[in-house]
Design goal:
The chain is an alpha/beta fold. It folds into 3 domains: 8-109, Arc Repressor Mutant, subunit A, CATH 1.10.10; 115-334, P-loop containing nucleotide triphosphate hydrolases (Rossmann fold); 355-505, no CATH class. Helix content is 43%, strand content 10%. A 5-stranded parallel beta sheet has the order 5-8-11-4-12, sandwiched between helices. A 3-stranded antiparallel beta sheet has the order 1-3-2. A hairpin with a 7-residue loop joins β9 (258-259) and β10. It is elongated, with a radius of gyration of 27 Å.
Amino acid sequence: MGNPKYKRNDLPLPFLKVLEDETTHSITEVYDAIAGEYKLTKDERYEKNQSGKSKLETDVLWVRTELAQKGLLDGDGKGTLWITSLGKKVLSNSPELLRMNKLVEVKQLVLRIMDEDVKSLVENIQSFIRSQGYSFPKHTIGNFYLSLKTKPFVILAGISGTGKTKLVKLFAEALGATKANGQFNLIPVRPDWNDPSDLIGYTDLSGKFQPGTITKVLYEAIKPSNSYKPYFICLDEMNLARVEHYFSDLLSIIETQEWKDEGKSRITTHTVVSEMSMSQEDRETYGELHIPENVYFIGTVNMDETTHPFSKKVLDRANTIEFNYINLEDLNFLDDTLQSPHPIEVDHSFLRSDYLTLKDVEDHTTLIQEVSSRLQQINKYLEPIQSHIGYRVRDAVCFYMTYNDRFKILSDTVAFDMQLCQKILPRVQGSSTNVKQTLIDLLLFAAKKSIDLGDLDNPSSKLNKFIFKPAKMSEDEWSNHFRYVASAKKIAFMLRRFDEDGFTSFWLS
């Protein structure tokens, strides 16, 4: 029989009020405070349920679990509790949600981001980064955002000193993720890594599991009180060691992303740590650890004689953004009149993927068909050199284009140009005449259809000039002749290197 003086549904509000002074409290203090709130007699305070346990304490423990899962409170697992920043926000701004049947709405309360708001948030991030003294090409931040939204693994490639690592750090800071709060983690890759033990962990000689760097981050990110916060893991100089040797396990686990429930409200993966040879205590701590939906991996790479190339397995699973643009004269950040935007606090859903399969994108069927048609044409050019794409790349490109269509960050043409650069061209390399012909076909694909570029071997033709005399071609000429300008410039560079060296690759610098 229930206690008529209170209902479990109403307990979240008085529970959080006990913690609102931002100090730690014991669960016993919560029991007593709620008993006082509802003026329970001693008999009512210790009334037993059918299991012989205190009804009040059972109800309060149930509510504690729900509040922790929603990120409203945290604890040490030993009975000491405290309120989280999200809990304070809900208690202050939306106390009406602090009922058991309303807690499901808390996740949307953190920051309900509408599609039309995303572009302005991305512009805020760009302004924050510029205020810190870094200037990137016009579409870089929007492209980086769309790439992370598409899949939580992005590669930033380019010559040393172009700000790749700094971009990741400042992007994270613009969203409130810092080294100090544990939401930004920089991991320098070592050349001697040949397995994932440094990242995932290992079992020592005593049988105790020693968690690796990434496992420690995942353990924190997966806590209910942190589940709405974005966590960034930056693998610096990722290709100093062979990525396939030390990161392949995590790449495979990322590919196991699936919806945890029918409502598609949460993404989960297979577990990260093998339970073999682990103690029972370690199994209880790490056995169910997976890559949560609020964790994002970014690798920075320099392509030189000290580094290793990427396999197609890695390239298939990431957007590869090239950084070779530097404008040393852009010093606008020195202007004292420019205001530095504050970091913005957003729910991790700002970055979390909304799509895992093309079936999830059924509201954008026409766009998917158009993009797939373009990719099918590109595949015809890639097939002779065995570099054609499969379903994984097709889906990733379609997701990227759909997000861009929703958020209006880039034009459709620029967005597809980015995908051509990031998902297609890194696959092309070799010394055969077929490679050269593939690049010519792709360059013509990038051109505006109404333009006759002429013959490559004719020194007076536009095609020849764009490839061998690019410095003499103005930006207007590039944009007048090509739909996909960034891709056209990269292809021209790759063709020029083929002519000079008899071999070409996206990665040559």
